[in-house]
Design goal:
The chain has 8 helices and 10 strands. With about 375 residues, the protein is α+β, with helices and mostly antiparallel strands. It has a domain of about 100 residues: Single Sheet (N-terminal domain of TfIIb), CATH 2.20.25.80. The strands form 3 sheets. A 4-stranded antiparallel β-sheet has the order 1-6-5-7, covered by helices on one side. Strands 2-3-4-8 form a 4-stranded antiparallel β-sheet, with no helix packed on it. The protein binds a DNA duplex (16 and 16 nucleotides) through β2.
DNA sequence: CGATTTTGACCCGCGC
DNA sequence: GCGCGGGTCAAAATCG
């Protein structure tokens, strides 16, 4: 079915082939061709059965994930309205751009994560978490640019060093400020998710769109290539990249000191303009500029592993389309199938996982055979 | 020279 | 009340 099957076959059959090959040389005259073929066929059948079971397990995992996600969205939807009205968006004096509460109330929460243990500690966090969506992006290890191409220009206005986190926390404002109130900050990611993804070597990408106000991206601790981008809130405008094409407009970048790979960038506020790279492009015939963020269905896979390039540069029309179809797409059989295959192929690239899996399967086979 | 980044200080909220 | 941490400000430094 997929790489997992092939990998498992390789894991299990390759050594045997070597052994059998030597046996054929040494004892070849003792073993008949039929016996050899029969044993190989039996082995193949056993591995195939194991593959089927694993396929079912992965499918069940995906379905459970979708179910949990739906539950989470429902819970967020129940808790959202009063919180938006009761809680200020920002704690500091002049920064309060709360006149967009109408937009907040109309947000369709594509809340995918919001599983942080601190999600319900503070009112402000409740607001944010209610609209959190997180994109797990696996990037090439050699790619240290950490650019999440959202099409906007950002200006760094502050940086904080966290005692526990060697990576500094940076704060960005939209370059169109003060007319545009959007801000962005790097924060710690939910490390459990990151570590899980690192272990699984899986890239799961949600469908962020330009209406979201905030955005978090964080690299993981280990020398991995998982980038977690969390999107919160909504923009009230198109990215400036649609207003004029400026190369390298994306500034959502945080390089870690020791090649750490997970970055969290949080957006606040709503852009009231297009991204520079798209300001000019809107005059063109195509209204979908640089729409490569939703690559879940055709994620470019690099040699280092499955990679999904997070490029949020796109027009509003595409954004609307993505918002309208993101959920159905995620639940569509094609996406499910893709996720299953993607997860499986990613899983097989983890030697620890494949070794443990092979051990478990072999152990189960031996136990069943011995009975 | 204007825009951007750096960096230390400050403000504010929260927990003890 | 105090300390800590998150977030912001603003002057200085740097860059193109």
């Amino acid at each position: 079915m997929f790489d997992l099957a092939r990998s498992l076959q390789l894991e299990t059959t390759t050594p045997k082939e070597e052994t059998n090959g030597s046996n054929l040389v040494v004892f070849g005259r003792k073993l008949s061709v039929k016996e050899e073929t029969g044993s190989l066929v039996d082995e193949l059948n056993r591995v195939s059965e194991g593959n089927k079971k694993l396929t079912h397990m992965l499918t069940a995992m995906c379905e459970s994930y979708n179910a949990l996600q739906s539950q989470l969205v429902d819970l967020m939807g129940k808790n959202k309205p009063e919180k938006f009205e009761l809680s200020p968006t920002k704690k500091r004096k002049s920064e309060s751009s709360n006149d967009d509460d109408d937009n907040k109330n109309s947000i369709i929460g594509n809340s995918e994560s919001s599983t942080d243990e601190e999600s319900y500690k503070k009112p402000r966090e409740e607001i944010i978490k209610a609209k959190v969506s997180r994109a797990y992006v696996r990037t090439d290890a050699s790619d240290t640019s950490l650019v999440v191409k959202d099409g906007y220009q950002w200006r760094k206005y502050g940086q904080k060093v966290n005692r526990d986190n060697p990576s500094p926390r940076a704060y960005f404002k939209c370059s169109f400020a003060p007319s545009c109130p959007v801000k962005k900050r790097y924060k710690e990611a939910l490390m459990t998710s990151v570590l899980l993804l690192q272990h699984m070597k899986v890239s799961i990408i949600t469908f962020p769109h330009l209406k979201w106000k905030q955005h978090q991206v964080q690299r993981s601790v280990d020398d991995q290539c998982v980038v977690v981008a969390t999107y919160e809130g909504e923009h009230n405008h198109l990215p400036p990249s649609q207003m004029e094409a400026t190369s390298g407009s994306s500034s959502c970048v945080q390089r870690s000191v020791d090649d750490q790979c997970v970055v969290v960038a949080t957006y606040e506020g709503e852009h009231n303009h297009l991204p520079p790279s798209q300001m000019e492009a809107t005059s063109g015939s195509s209204s979908c500029v640089g729409l490569s963020s939703v690559h879940a269905g055709s994620a470019p896979v690099k040699s280092a592993g499955p990679t999904i390039t997070l490029d949020l540069t796109k027009s509003k029309s595409c954004d609307e389309e993505a918002r309208n179809h993101s959920k159905p797409k995620m639940n569509s059989p094609e996406i499910k199938q893709y996720l299953v295959e993607h997860m499986a192929s990613s899983l097989t690239k983890d030697p620890n996982f494949t070794a443990a899996l092979a051990a478990a399967i072999s152990g189960r086979m031996y136990s069943t055979n011995s009975k």
